[in-house]
Amino acid sequence: MTAKVEIYTWSTCPFCNRAKNLLLNKGVDFIEYNIDGDEVARNEMAQRANGKRSLPQIFINDHHIGGCDNLYTLDSTGQLDTLLGGSKV
User: Fold this and answer.
1) Within 10 A of 48 (CB to CB), how many other CB atoms are there?
2) Which pLDDT score is estimated for 40?
3) Is the CB of residue 5 less than 8 Å from the CB of residue 30?
4) What distance in Å separates the CA atoms of residue 45 and residue 1, rounded to the nearest whole number?
5) pLDDT digit string (tens) for 5-52?
6) Measured in Å, how far apart are the chain's first and last C-alpha atoms?
7) What is the mean pLDDT of the segment spanning 58-67?
8) Which residues form the Glutaredoxin domain (predicted)?
9) pLDDT at 76 over 50
10) Rounded (10°) CA dihedral 81, 12, 46, 85
11) Which CA distances in Å does 33 have to 28, 59, 81?
């Protein structure tokens, strides 16, 4: 089973790009929601992310992971591969 990965981003956000690069380097397909200046979309994201409005916000199988630092922490402990279905590139 392939994990459903979603990431909310802004096009000029360096943390968003860093998180996407990690996912791309792992060969993970993800759905990107670019919400540049879209307050309605940002409010929807915040509702899903327990009130968090910073970017990126990342979800794996509809479970809120958090932001870029959270993603890298999960990767460094091996937990990200487990969440993604155990496959490593």
Assistant:
1) 14
2) 97
3) yes
4) 25
5) 999 999 999 999 999 999 999 999 999 999 999 999 999 999 999 999
6) 15
7) 97
8) 5-65
9) yes
10) -10
11) 16, 11, 22
Decide the pairing of beta strands 57-60 and 5-9. Answer: antiparallel
Q: What is the pTM of this model?
A: 0.92
Q: Give the up-direction half-sphere exposure of residue 64: CA atoms within 13 A in the CB hemisphere.
A: 14
Residue 68: phi and psi, rounded to 5, are -60, -50
Q: Would residue 85 be called left, alpha or beta, if left means φ above 0 and alpha means ψ between -120 and 50 degrees?
A: left
Q: What is the mean pLDDT of residues 49-74?
A: 97
Q: What residue has token string 């979603």? A: 6
pLDDT surpassing 90 at residue 2: no
Alpha-carbon distance of 89 to 70, in angstroms, equals: 20
From CA 18, how far away is CA 50, in angstroms rounded?
22
Please tell me whether residue 47 adopts helix, strand or coil conformation: helix
